[in-house]
């Protein structure tokens, strides 16, 4: 069938303009003073704010394969994270968060945390996603919070009438490294 060509080549100047537009890095809106974007997720009964530069991905909860002869400690087992075998750490046990009042299994997610060349999976009960948290008025952790949780936190911020424990990336990584060694 010979008909009019509906596909035309782009003019050279337009091609150069579009290539420059596509190559330009995205504009990241600067956070307002004292505010930081954190991935907010519930672990146990506590809402935690994870630094987004530690998050490699979030995945649906899948099966965790137990490691033979490892029935205690903070390691739950091995998790298949899109074809990569990753150690799964029980963050609720590691940080000794408060007990969850009720669990909604359909909202559970796996966070794949990454630093340098290490990846670790942690199960969260639910996740809000990236939230802008006001760090200008950080408060102390609740009385009775575990030393483990206090050791990895920067403090507590109130976000949407909910206390969110803001995690410190370096101290969380150190705690996770200790758990997997």
TrEMBL record:
Entry protein name: Chemotaxis signal transduction protein
Signal peptide: none
Residue ranges occupied by any CheW-like domain in the UniProt entry: 35-178
GO biological process: chemotaxis; signal transduction
Record organism: Terrimicrobium sacchariphilum
Pfam families noted in UniProt: CheW (PF01584)
């Amino acid at each position: 069938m010979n008909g009019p060509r509906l596909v035309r080549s782009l003019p050279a100047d337009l091609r150069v303009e579009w290539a420059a537009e596509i190559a330009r890095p995205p504009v990241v809106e600067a956070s307002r003073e004292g505010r930081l974007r954190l991935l907010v997720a519930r672990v146990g009964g506590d809402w935690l704010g994870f630094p987004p530069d530690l998050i490699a991905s979030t995945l649906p909860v899948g099966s965790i394969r137990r490691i033979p002869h490892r029935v205690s400690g903070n390691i739950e087992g091995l998790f298949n994270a899109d074809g990569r075998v990753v150690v799964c750490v029980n963050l609720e046990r590691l940080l000794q968060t408060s007990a969850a009042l009720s669990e909604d299994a359909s909202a559970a997610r796996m966070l794949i945390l990454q630093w340098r060349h290490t990846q670790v999976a942690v199960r969260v009960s639910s996740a809000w996603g990236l939230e802008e948290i006001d760090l200008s008025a950080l408060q102390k952790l609740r009385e009775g919070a575990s030393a483990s949780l206090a050791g990895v936190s920067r403090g507590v911020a109130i976000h949407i009438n909910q206390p969110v424990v803001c995690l410190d990336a370096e101290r969380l990584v150190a705690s996770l490294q200790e758990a997997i060694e």
